[in-house]
Amino acid sequence: MMHTGDSLAAELQRVREHRPVRERPGADAAPPVLSLFVIDVSGDAAAYVERLRSVLVPAVRMGCTADFEQESLPVDEVPGWFAAVGSGSGSGDEERAPQFARAGREAYAEHTGGGRPWDLQDWLYRFDPDEHSRGWEWWDATVTGPSRVHVRVDSWGEPVFGCQDLLWAVFTAGAVRVEGPTVQITSFRENP
Question: How far apart are CA 183 and CA 7, in angstroms?
Answer without folding.
Answer: 20
